[in-house]
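Morning. Coffee machine broken again, so started the prediction first thing and wrote up yesterday's gels while waiting. Chain of 44 residues, entered below exactly as on the submission form.
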Amino acid sequence: MEVIQEKLKSIGVGIGSILGYIIILAGIVMTILILLTIFPGEVI
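Came back before lunch.
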């Protein structure tokens, strides 16, 4: 049973890190989109 728990724990950590990475990327994209709507053409 302990082997299964270790596997589940590692899978959970992997999913958590992937989700965190996606959330950070989404936040960056949203920030860029908001900046583009406030200052169209000036950011780039």
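The CA atoms of residues 8 and 14 lie 10 Å apart. Going to sketch it on the whiteboard this afternoon.
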